[in-house]
Structures are given as C-alpha cells and as structure tokens.
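Work package 3, deliverable 3.1, input record:
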Amino acid sequence: MHLTKFTDLGLRALMILGDTGAAGATDPAQRRTIGELAVQTAAPASHVKKVVARLTGAGILGSVRGRSGGVYLADGARSVDVGTLLRDLEGRHEVVDCDGDTPCPLARRDCSLRHLLADAQENFFSTFDGIALGELIDRNAAGAPTGPVSVGMPTTPAPRTYDTDE
Amino acid sequence: MHLTKFTDLGLRALMILGDTGAAGATDPAQRRTIGELAVQTAAPASHVKKVVARLTGAGILGSVRGRSGGVYLADGARSVDVGTLLRDLEGRHEVVDCDGDTPCPLARRDCSLRHLLADAQENFFSTFDGIALGELIDRNAAGAPTGPVSVGMPTTPAPRTYDTDE
C-alpha cells in the first residue's frame, strides 16, 4: 500500500517548511525555493513545483517573489487538519482501480470487496482527523536529535524518481 | 493510495475462484487455469502465476495438474481471515518509502508522520480483521445481478498493465 508520490512529496515539503520555524512571510530564513525543496525532498523540481502550486492554491503555503523569495507555511497552516489535507492531496481514487481502462469484471456487480476497501481507506484517513499540521511539526521538532544531523541537507542529493502518473 | 498490484490481483483471483462455487478439488468446474484467470483479471499470465504460487504456498489455493486441471479454493480457504491475508499479500512495506535509495532526511530523526502513517496503515488492514474470505464471496454472490452479465468473461480482453515492482 502506497500513498501517491504527490501526497508523499506534499507531506515532506510541509514538514521541512515547518522545520524552518514559526509560520510567516516576514523572515526570509523561513522560506525555501522550489530548488531547495527539491534537494531536501530528493525529488525533481518539476514535481515539487506542482505540489507547491496545489498547497499554495489551498492557502497552506504562501510565497514571496524575488531574490530572497520562496515559499513558507502560511498563517493558519499549522491549524490545518491533517486528515482533511491527506484526503485532498490523495484525491478521490480507490485503492484498487476497479473502473480503469480494463474494468474489473467484478465491478459490474455490487462488489463487496470494493465497499470494504473504501471503508478501509476512510479508516486510514480518519487516523489523521483532529491532528493539526502544527502538532505533527512540533512532535518532530521535539524528537529532533541534538547532534550535527541537519534536516536541511540530505546526504544524497540525487533526485528520487517520481512517476508523473502516481 | 493504492494497494500493490500483487495484492489487487490476488484479491481478484480469489473472488473469481470463489465465484465458481463451493471450495474443493473434486469438481473440474471449480478450477481455473492461469490463462483463464489472466483473461478474467485482465492481467498478464506471468503476474497471475506469481500470485497463484504465493496463494498456493499459503494453502489458500489448491491445484490439479492435467487436461482438466487448474487452481481452486482449497479446503478451509473460505475461513481465512481477510485482514491477515491482506497483510500477507502487501508485505511489510511502509506507505511512503522513507528508507529508499534516497532516504528522506526526516527519517534520520524519529519522524512523527512516519509513526502516524504506520498507525493509519494498521487501521486500514484491521477493517478486514474478523471477516472471512467466504463471507466476502457470499456477499458478492448475493449481490450478483440475475441478467446476462457474466463474471467469467470480461468485455475487454486487453491485458491490464501490471508493473512487476509494485
């Protein structure tokens, strides 16, 4: 079972941006460029750009143009419900592709498995209901090691392969 | 969010084999060849073969060699717990690939998101705990239309693409 690469990348970007400090546009140190996020998430910049566009459109990220510009956690982003956020990033896809290009023959009757898989998917998402993004970020900050490990620079800068159709 | 193609195919094969009638090796009408299952699941025979091998190894399917041979639901298959079955087919993969070829920088600390995603995955699987495979099959049979729709022959025989690494 896998989340889509889109969701995966969106969550990583938010956790990294949350790691820069309090949300807001005032401090340039809280901003990251698409290129910086691409390095930090080890994903192609083109994919980061799409995810950032979605999160900016949803008001979760803000952006500042110019030389010291970049994206940052928007005001109120920390109170976003992670369950709602996950459902939005994942979209309304089923966990198996019953109605794809080659529809499953079982889909032509009222398949019991399909209903249960939908229930299971909802149980997955509801695990995150009532958890605010800021809470997740704070838990991570609390669990951060005090040694020289930096979240800002991964040891392996090679881009992770992200399929565009996932 | 998607189940692996391996699990997807395994579930479809089991539902189709359950649709042939009571489990058992005695009646050739209850058996399906790899080729027949490949057509009915619209998947490549090589992938069906792998899934069938796993399910046969687990004692959920039985097989008969020869001209009227094939695979069938083994005795006891109907009492298999679907939650346990799903966990077995899916394996121990995380829903995001934190420790892949390019490990996520957040994985180096005790990432709160990772723990919650594991909880969510368990909530997904536990939806199926206590549900027997036979119960799922019977629910499908009860919901079957009485018209000419046949589960046995999909309208589109073109093979669904299954990635081997999923």
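The first strand of chain B starts at residue 61 and ends at 64.
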